[in-house]
Amino acid sequence: MTTTLVTGATGFVGAAVVRQLLAAERAVRVLARPDSDRRNLQGLPVTVVEGDLREPASLGPALRGCRVLYHVAADYRLWTPDPAVLYETNVRGTEHLLLAAAEAGIERIVYTGSVATLGTTADGSPANEDTPATIQQMVGHYKRSKYLAEEAVTRLIRERGLPVVIVNPSTPVGPGDIKPTPTGRLVRDAAAGRIPAFVDTGLNIVHVDDVATGHLLAETQGAVGRRYVLGGEDLSLREILAIIAGLTGRPAPRIELPRAPLYPLAWLTETFARLSGGPEPQLTLDGLRMSRKRMWFSSARAEQELGYRARPARAALADAVAWFQRRG
Length: 328
Description:
Helix content: 40-55%
CATH class of the domain at 3-173 and 205-233 and 296-312: Alpha Beta
Shape: globular
Structural class: alpha/beta
Order of helices and strands: EHEEHEHEHEEHEEHEEHEHHHH
CATH architecture of the domain at 3-173 and 205-233 and 296-312: 3-Layer(aba) Sandwich
CATH topology of the domain at 3-173 and 205-233 and 296-312: Rossmann fold
Largest sheet: 7 strands, parallel
Distance between the termini: 40 Å
Strand content: 15-25%
Number of helices: 11
CATH superfamily of the domain at 3-173 and 205-233 and 296-312: NAD(P)-binding Rossmann-like Domain
Radius of gyration: 19 Å
């Protein structure tokens, strides 16, 4: 039986990938930090190997005896008091892991990128894998770190001949968002009636389980060195909040806010979080800057080449809301 290593398996997307692999009767090994929250792995028949992407010596033992690697792990925060951590994990950690995978003779690698690394179109139409982007267009340290990480991956494919397929998920929602992710916080707070207003922006919403299925399709059907957007349905933030309101029986927010007055408030919330040592604030400067463009994407390549399909966004949001409600 093929043994598959999954990084980021304790996280939102990684745990969904693990569940799909187990359903396919694969032997799964996961790399987890010693202090990681492992609730997403409870009851799952996986082998846990402790290690850290920032500690190269810990990666070889985790890869030994594996034939396939899913590198899903990433530090997904739009704000952090120490941005260097994002680059250590997302860029250098990826380089460490892929070099270790080359030494271990891994036969197939699926790397989880992000649509954050792709460009956007001038007319607002959905972007795709070939929409050009530069590092100067990346807003914030998270997007820059993922952009640089994907550059490192493509360089290693070219220089070392690594058998990597790249997937670029859009905005996953659904069950298992324990942390939660920035989008998960949006869904949770909207379901609780804590988002009374919105700005004019848009996201591509996809069910996390469809993203996980897309990972497995990329392993078996994807072309080495090729990128595949794993997305779902393009919706404005107004539409997303209206769907969540309908699911919870609450009135939908009707107030659309201009961005300009929100920047000082975002600065204040970030400053408070930095001084108090609190969690990532809901309103951040980078989040506001990102919202100036609608993050809409096409999954046509994945549909045509991988056989990828995604359920309607309403179904994804319904599963996410139900999961948060069960957790109180």
